[in-house]
Amino acid sequence: MNSKTLPLAKYTVLDLSIARAGPTAVRMLADWGADVIRIESPVEGDIAGKRHGPDSQNLHRNKRSLCLNLKSPEGLKIFMDLVKRADVVVENFRVDVKHRLGVDYEAVKQVNPQIIYASISGFGQQGPYANRPAVDQVIQGMSGLMSITGEPNQGPMRAGIAVSDTSAGMFLGQGILLAVLHREHTGEGQWVHTSLLESMLSKMDFQAARYTMNGEVAGQEGNNHPTLSPMGVFDTSDGLVNLAASTNKMFKAFCKIMNATGLGVNEDYKNVEGRLKNRETLWQLVNKITKRYSTSELVEKLNSVGIPCGPINTIDEAFADEQVQFLKLTKQATHTELGDFDLLRSPINLSEFQHSASFEKPGPDLGEHSLEILTELDYSAEKIEQLQKNGAFS
Asked: Considering 64, 178, 328, 382, which has the largest number of Cβ atoms within 10 A of its Cβ?
């Protein structure tokens, strides 16, 4: 499928962001056709030589790279010339840094009043922590996530993925699309921003709502669901399994298909409240039953009667799963040095746009498209050569 036919094909995005959260938002736009130009620093653009690694290729596929010195007046002028033609600018500078560079919202808006300026930060654009640096794990701790992750009485535990970064990126991507829709109706640009802290507190979802509504402070529950039982991890004859038989209907179905009639008529477990109150004893009883069967037997048996049940896979096992294979969640990227390799495609499915077999572009090398992009600005060859000599770009 040609990227020029995709839903965001008419939009140009200037990506000033680094790390993970901002690039996650921009990746979504790039995957759906936006012309994304990564504005990279000549000094910091290839940190630790990891540009050809899985993380960078995964974050920056389908983007172009312009290596620009924003500290140079000529480099800043190039950026503003791009702004005149762009639809979206994405950045994750600290507040003082973007003002010092002259690429803050007000400066960009003066050049293009219809611009959608999208910012992502650790703690928000204003407030007592606005200028603090942040990383994913710090936000996991401050948001309360680590306090509810892990086994009880074993101390806080981080989630195994950069959930704060990726959540903030997803929310910023949604905010950009909302601003695009607003501009389609009104012609007006605006400033869209979110933060890792805001996004992570939102992701706390019903645990947060338990506190805001009722003052409940949730704790660690390990692999058990915090408010429903039986729902969690159980032993099998050859490993472990996740199962959820927490509603009255599902619990009755579990007891019937597992020939546990005594469990099904026990007054302690007849309703949701009783099963939660007595969940430790119930877990032991259910676990005795599940240990008689293999994981595959339980998955087949319980799903057949509407009880969610699944294996606990390693990453390689997850990709080998027949449903994952059917969904074709990977696409091929082709790089001049790295050759062909697979990356995860966008998880969004649109009926009018079938996923292509390959990505249009791999993650770019530093400044790979600099000359190409400046030529598109109608700069003459002589001007480009002079700008390069002056260190405005590379």
From this structure: 64
Q: Please tell me the distance from the alpha carbon of residue 186 to that of residue 201, in angstroms, as a whole number.
A: 32
Write the pLDDT tens digit of every residue in 5-36.
899 999 999 999 999 999 999 999 999 999 99
CATH number of the domain at 3-203+365-389, please? 3.40.50.10540
SS in 3 state form for 157-179? CCCCCCHHHHHHHHHHHHHHHHH
Quick one: pLDDT at residue 1? 52
Which residues have a catalytic role annotated?
165
Residues 68/77, Cβ–Cβ less than 8 Å = no
Please give the model's pTM, rounded to 2 decimal places: 0.94
CATH of 231-313, one of 3.30.1540.10, 3.20.20.70, 3.40.50.720, 3.40.50.300: 3.30.1540.10
Q: Where in the chain is the domain with CATH 3.40.50.10540?
A: 3-203+365-389
